[in-house]
Amino acid sequence: MLRPIGSSTSAMDSSATAGKSIFRHSVHCVSRESRQLFFACSIQVQIRFMICKRERNRRGFFEFLLDAESMLKFNPRFLIVSLGNPLPKYESLHSAGHFVLNGLAKTLHQPAFREVTLGRQSCLVSQGPKYILVQSPTYMNTSGGFVANAWQETVRKYGAESLGLVIVHDELEKDFGVVKLLPWDRSPRGHNGVKSVRGSLSQKKYPESPFARVAVGIGRPEERDAATVSRYVLKKISREHQTTLEEETPWDVAKCLMELENQWRIDVQGGSGGTTEP
């Protein structure tokens, strides 16, 4: 693990500014497809810069810049779907994924969410050049059909070879706010939303696409009987918890997304192909 060094970020600021200037100058001289690639890579630079600045990890940012050539050669998209019960009616810990996605749009410098039709249903979507953030409009336990339809529609538009799928969901077995990147086939541990998605969408049909889960810890009550757990996850979320999920947790989710993409890039450029298991 890299040790944070120093508190000065002037060199990082200068490098990030220079990088942005290069991208802005280049977009006037290239095709539409190349412009989209430049914009997506520029966003990656900004996100990595903000994460490293936040962690005071200057070395990590410069190492990321040294790998920019690899990033330009392989720059995929991700469909990121949060699971939960519809907001704002069901503002509970069980909808933690939706709250995190609200904050993730800001962290990733995405456009604001707007209501569109995707997966045959009206839902909230934030569409960027790299990340397509979607809040599942269904109830948690019946998420599968929507996620499968949204994935298939997005694959038809962009192609499976350059598209990955990530679902963001709450996790009782982790302390509140803890974020973990999980393999798609990891046990749902009784999570009905994850069960529904996995029952509706088979990763084996898309071997060129990485499927993954981002679990967001919500803790659990001391009593583990079904009635107590149900009350815990469905009660109205506190303002403090909502603020954490929308302002702090998205940074850890962004790191998971970059980790997933880096592993996918290694697999593709290393010639191994196939799916990625974080």
TrEMBL record:
Keyword set, alphabetical order: Hydrolase, RNA-binding, tRNA-binding
Protein family according to the UniProt entry: Belongs to the PTH family.
UniProt xrefs under SUPFAM superfamilies: Peptidyl-tRNA hydrolase-like
Enzyme Commission no: 3.1.1.29
Keyword Magnesium among record annotations: no
Name the record gives this protein: peptidyl-tRNA hydrolase
GO MF annotations in UniProt: peptidyl-tRNA hydrolase activity; tRNA binding
Cross-referenced InterPro entries: Pept_tRNA_hydro, Pept_tRNA_hydro_CS, Pept_tRNA_hydro_sf
Coiled-coil ranges (or none): none
Record PROSITE patterns: PEPT_TRNA_HYDROL_2
Family annotation (Gene3D superfamilies): Peptidyl-tRNA hydrolase (3.40.50.1470)
PANTHER family reported for this sequence: PEPTIDYL-TRNA HYDROLASE (PTHR17224)
